[in-house]
Amino acid sequence: VSGRPRALDGAPEMKPGDRLISYGFYLHGLPFYTESPVDVVNWVGELHYAKRNPANKARFGDDDTIRRLPDPDRTTFVALRLREASYLTTLAKPAEIDGMRTYGPWALAKFTPVKAPARSRPGRLGSPSSGDGRAPAR
Q: pLDDT of 30-47, one tens digit each?
């Protein structure tokens, strides 16, 4: 199974610094075609030797990795088997998933950082202000 179609489908949206997670499997073509490192969640397979290296510990995760999405600082893409898409939505609230593309037996979910609501500034609550920070004259 090639990672080329999935990688090329998500690649136009991916920007440097975005995170790519492979959930439940690892297609060796993903890092090649996306030119991006790939973190692995709920799968080890032949990468068991790499997982033992402390330098790679952050590259492997479990369902809690998905529960912690969206990352506040970057967009995250999660590549997964389509049959696992409904389970993914039990880990992350559907409102946190900013879109999911499906094609063939695969899916690519996108998690976008949540922007904090803008805070209102003094004197901007709908009433006129004198501009000096004091309450408006009555």
A: 888 888 899 999 987 778
Gap between the Cα atoms of 132 and 92, Å rounded: 46
Distance from CA of residue 110 to its chain's centroid?
5
Helix (H, G, I), strand (E, B) or coil at 110: strand
Burial classification of residue 3, based on how many CB atoms lie within 10 Å of its CB (0-12 exposed, 13-18 middle, 19 or more buried): buried
Please tell me the pTM assigned to this model. 0.74
* Beta-sheet strands, E only, within the chain: 19-23, 38-41, 60-61, 76-81, 100-103, 106-111
Distance CA(110)–CA(82), nearest Å, equals: 14
Tell me if 97 sits within 8 A of 89, measured CB to CB.
yes
